[in-house]
Specification:
single chain; alpha+beta; Immunoglobulin-like; 2 domains; five-stranded mixed β-sheet; 4 helices; 10 strands; about 30% helix; about 20% strand; binds copper (II) ion
């Protein structure tokens, strides 16, 4: 409830509800602390006003109540950290989808001020990139079927996705709010992030790291589609048969060995 009041957008990933649960808990806890400390502050203003205590008492507090309250706050924070935050984080960094679960691996390249998404194509292998990092080198055959999609991240519903995130220039941060995923894009490094989309739809992608004058416009779109729609999109954007080529393979010359 508090999450919604704070304007959080609906979750669209498998693990997202756990993060939302933790956020909700955090918000309630902060609300309790805010009300508690504010009441205490007002109480001290009234109770220790100069008109009531013209002479300072240098001895101070004589009960242990505040120690107990502090201990409870530390305890709740420890539960938040050890019970929610660390297990969630451990799952993000340790439990990467096994090859058997057929994860879709996509390279993500950030630059001032755009995102490029690179799919490995049917062979499942990324081609060698040119020095510009966002176009495949023609000399590498495994890059022939790659799909490079500037500004549009298309994902199939229900299939685990591993994003390998890097940057061409300065530090950016890929933020998929609806997937509850944010990962810095750092030049010279490739950081993976994974999630499973569970809701079809169109979502906004933004840069979460102040990266220059155009940072606010560094947006892209994410489309979660049914697997059929996704395959159709990939095919449409993949290598097209050369114009005029015979579609029937029967009479065609044997394909060159790979
Ligand atoms: Cu950026």
């Amino acid at each position: 409830m508090l999450n919604r009041m704070m304007g959080i957008i609906p979750n669209a990933s498998e693990h997202g509800y756990q993060i939302d649960l933790m956020l909700e808990f955090c918000h309630w806890f902060m609300l309790v602390l805010f009300v508690g400390w504010s009441a205490f502050f007002l109480l001290t203003l009234i109770k220790f006003h100069r008109s009531r205590h013209p002479k300072a008492d240098y001895y101070g507090v004589r009960t242990h109540a505040s120690t107990h309250v502090e201990f409870m706050v530390v305890l709740v924070e420890a539960v938040l950290l050890l019970g929610f935050a660390l297990p969630l984080w451990a799952k993000r960094v340790n439990d990467f989808p096994k090859p058997g679960s057929n994860p879709l691996v996509i390279k993500v390249i950030g630059q001032q001020f755009a995102w490029t998404f690179w799919y490995p194509g049917a062979d499942g292998k990324f081609g060698k990139p040119n020095p510009d990092m966002v176009t495949p080198d023609d000399s590498d055959p495994s890059g022939k079927d790659d799909v490079v999609s500037p500004g549009e991240l298309h994902l199939p519903l229900g299939r685990p996705v591993i994003l390998e995130i890097t940057s061409r220039d300065v530090i950016h941060s890929l933020s998929l709010h609806s997937m509850r995923i944010t990962q810095d894009a750092i030049p010279g490094s490739r950081f993976p992030a994974w999630f499973t989309p569970i809701k079809t739809g169109e979502y906004e992608i933004v840069c979460a790291q102040l990266c220059g004058m155009g940072h606010g416009n560094m947006k892209a779109m994410m489309f979660v589609q049914t697997p059929e729609e996704f395959d159709a999109w990939l095919k449409q954007n993949g290598p097209q048969p050369a114009a005029g080529a015979a579609p029937a393979p029967a009479a065609a010359a044997p394909a060159p060995a790979k």
